[in-house]
Design goal:
The chain is an alpha/beta fold. It is built from 8 helices and 7 strands. A 7-stranded parallel beta sheet has the order 3-2-1-4-5-6-7, with helices on both faces. Helix 3 (about 70-85) packs parallel to helix 4. About 45% of the residues are buried.
């Protein structure tokens, strides 16, 4: 007597998945049983290493270069994932860049580049995948930052872009309900290439750690596990929310003169 065919594995598409938080997200989803497609900007060697790690976990993987700021490349990434892996159940819009220092005299080009990657990029990715996510009753997670809700003029452009991501997640959650859940994730201080100038300086790293109630910097895996939760059936009644993953840092925002 033959049983019913097993359900096909779920599939995730992660933007900016070669290094740092993106790499940790790709690997965490693979460990959770998903096949994973991911995009990357420039580092083909890092992308190849991440792809090999996914394959070592027994999952299928696709890796392709892509400019997160371009609608046509978002559409291509979605189409390639659908063609290569058969479906899309989870989208993680993780690709992002930092902005110029300060708030005075920021050029128009700098504003456009940060907003194009950090805000339009997630919109293009989710919009391109919306029909497929509706079909699979999937979910999307947009990576924001605690900078979205903090006053920090030295990172004004970056902070504004991430505040936009939080608002975008809420609006997309409403627009795509009830078939698709959309949530944002707001990491705090995490050891990545973006924060290398601080976490590799002992005094600066220690000062930041002292201000975090959890007593340490975050690691990419801390963020990745939160993504796994939001992508899972355990979060089936969670949509339009922002999950903060910062060790309690945003309870009292202490960045300033003492840092």
């Amino acid at each position: 007597m033959s049983g019913s065919a097993p359900d096909p594995p779920r599939v995730a598409l992660v933007t900016g998945g070669a290094r740092g938080i993106g790499r940790a997200i790709v690997l965490a989803l693979a460990r959770d049983g998903l096949d994973v497609a991911f995009t990357y900007a420039r580092d083909a060697d890092a992308a190849a290493r991440t792809a090999r790690e996914v394959e070592a976990l027994g999952r299928r993987v696709l890796a392709r270069p892509s400019d997160a700021a371009r609608r046509d490349e978002a559409e291509t990434a979605v189409a390639a994932t659908r063609a290569g892996l058969g479906r899309i159940d989870v989208v993680v819009a993780n690709a992002g860049i930092t902005g110029p220092d300060g708030w005075e005299g920021v050029s128009t080009d700098a504003w456009h580049r940060v907003l194009d990657v950090n805000l339009l990029g997630p919109y293009f990715t989710v919009a391109s995948a919306a029909a497929e996510l509706r079909r699979t009753r999937g979910s999307a997670i947009l990576v924001a930052s605690i900078a979205a809700s903090s006053a920090y003029p030295e990172e004004l452009v970056y902070s504004a872009s991430k505040a936009g991501v939080v608002s975008l997640a809420r609006s997309l959650a409403y627009a795509l309900a009830p078939e698709v859940r959309v949530n944002a994730l707001a990491p705090g201080w995490v050891r990545t290439d973006m924060t290398r100038a601080l976490h590799t300086r002992p005094k600066a790293a220690a000062a930041i750690a002292r201000g975090i109630p959890a007593g340490r910097w975050g690691e990419p895996e801390d963020v990745a596990e939160a993504v796994v939760f939001l992508a899972s059936d355990g979060a089936r009644f969670v949509t339009g929310e922002t999950l903060v993953v910062d060790g309690g840092d945003s309870l009292v925002w202490t960045i300033g003169a003492e840092r």
